[in-house]
Every structure is written in structure tokens, then in C-alpha cells.
Amino acid sequence: MPELPEVETIRRDLQKRVLNKKIRRVNIIDSVILRSSPAEFKKVLVGATIRAVDRRGKALLITLNNGYVLAVQLMMTGQLITDNSIDRHTRLEIVFSDGNVLLYKDQRRFGQLRVVKSLNEFKHLQDLGPEPLEKDFNPVYIAAYIKYRKRPIKTLLLDHTFVAGIGNIYACEILYRARISPLRPACRISKSEAAEIHEQSRVVLKEAIRHRGSSMRNYRDAAGKKGGFKKLIQVYAREGEACLHCDGPVKRIVQAGRSTFYCPLCQK
DNA sequence: AGGTCGACCTGGCAGC
DNA sequence: TGCTGCCAGGTCGACC
Known about the structure:
- The chain is of the alpha+beta class.
- Helices cover 27% and strands 21% of the residues.
- The protein is built from 7 helices and 10 strands.
- The strands form 3 sheets. It has a 4-stranded antiparallel sheet, with helices on one face.
- Strand 2 and strand 3 (59-64) form a beta hairpin.
- Helix 1 (4-18) runs parallel beside helix 7, helix 4 (139-146) crosses helix 7 and helix 6 crosses helix 7.
- It binds a DNA duplex through helix 6.
């Protein structure tokens, strides 16, 4: 489900809604989503106060006053909703001492929640590359990384060891706006094109955050509302429709088992 | 080191 | 109406 802009939107919402709240009760409805034992999970959360809500890549990191961190990966269909709209997809209910509620919903149950004493225990984080909107993701880094790599640039953008947080929608959008074919071997991308990938990554992700994320299918912000970026998507899921630049048909191909949408005429 | 694939799951939708 | 097959925003591990 959510990529960086969606997770960042949820993070900002949660910061407004649950910061400094004390957890009174935890109701584990479906323990499949837990990567800590239910007993430890409850023991760590109940009585703790939320001190910070951070994000790394697509992972939410909720720091507690007891030193533990609640790490949440929403995967494809996870949602964190700050109301009490419990339904059949609700897997976890957190009740605060002021009576407010935070729900974890997940249609497909791919999401993962864990409590860790140190972020080193969360291996996923150790493997992550730079944040795409931070300084260490820059044209020099990109050019050096891709220099000897033959894999298609699209699959590289999806590789979180190269850059964190970019998923299938935004990888397609970035390459479309940079006018670079998703099939191009990374090592055949020039320095100026690497700079363009960097620039368009910033443009697309910032724009998406400004519009509170995309609304494909299941994405909801913490208030349960859809994002507004969908109408700004230029190429994703537009197979057969006219390219906004040349009017030619948008093509769908499969790379590494994932759909890629692009314009074969505009993207070289 | 790259790559592909299947697994993890549920549900919406198109086509017959 | 109901069946089948395909598709879906992520990540990991097995395998070549």
C-alpha cells in the first residue's frame, strides 16, 4: 500500500493526535501481524507514553517513554486510524488514558508490528539506503551507485538498499517525468540524467506529501481519509491511455514481477 | 552480485 | 448469480 509520502502523511497525523498520550489498554485482535510475542508486546505498550513518531523509509517508528520503539510496517494494506471505527479488518486496538483510540487495520494481514529495545534489533532498518529527500541522496551518490550496475533503473529505484521509501507508483512517476526508460540499464545513465532522477524524485515525492499521498485502493490517512495525489499521477495504472506529452499509448510491462507503466516514445 | 520467483493474505473486478 | 483468473502500494528468503 503506502509508499513514503503516504507513510509521512500518517506520521504527521499521528504526531498531532497521539503524541504524549499514555496507553491504557492494548487489544490484540489478530496476532498474525505481530513480530514480537503478544505478551511482550502488551507488556511494553501498556502504561507507556508516546514520546515521538518518526519515519524511516516506509517504516513508522513510535518511540515510548520506557525506551522501547514500536515499529510499524504497513506493507500493502495496513492503516493506522485514530478513531474507534472497529471493523472486520481491525487487527489491533490501542486505547489511551484519555479515551482516544488508535486502530491498526489491515485487509491482507501483510503488515508487521514489533516492539524493540534498540533499533539495531530491527534488521530492515540496517539495510536501508538514504532517505530520498535528505542530502545524502544526491546526484553524486546516484552516479557512483549506478556506475557498474547493469540492472534496469526501475528495479533499482525499488531497491530500498539504494534509496528508501520509493515504491512502485513513485518509481514509475519519477522515471516518466525524467523521460528515462524503466528498462535502461542503470550503468547507461549519464551524470546529467542521474541529476534529473534526483530532481524528479524530490519533485514527485514532495508534491505527493503536499497532497497527503495517493489514493489507490486501500490507502487512508490517520483520520481515515483518502489522499489527493491520485489525480496528479501521470503514468501509473494508465495502460492504453494517452501519454500526456506525446499522445501515444502508455504501455504496461512486468519487471521483477511488478507492473511498470511508461511511455515508450517519451522515455528513452 | 543480480535476477527471478514464490510466499505471505484478502478482496475487487472482468470475463464467461 | 457464480465461477475462475488476474491484479494489487511491500518485503523476505530460496534458488539459479
